[in-house]
Description:
By secondary structure, the chain is mainly alpha-helical. The mean pLDDT is 82. The radius of gyration is 25 Å and the shape is flat.
Amino acid sequence: MAKKDYTDDDGRTIVDMNVDGFRWYKPKNEEGKKAVAGKSRKEKKRLFRSAYLSLALPLICLLVGVSLTFFILYYFWL
């Protein structure tokens, strides 16, 4: 079978398929892998604290929603 000739291919990349998690992923630089490396102890503590605080509000909302659903179903349905 003959190889197909694509006349509309100009060699540009529309979407980079080098995505973290794919087995063919190759990091562009090793520096980006370790975002926490090279930071002081105070900066690391502040970084992790902000990460936990950014997850706190959705977690609280989820817990309140599940609790309210449970109590409404328990007291009014049963």
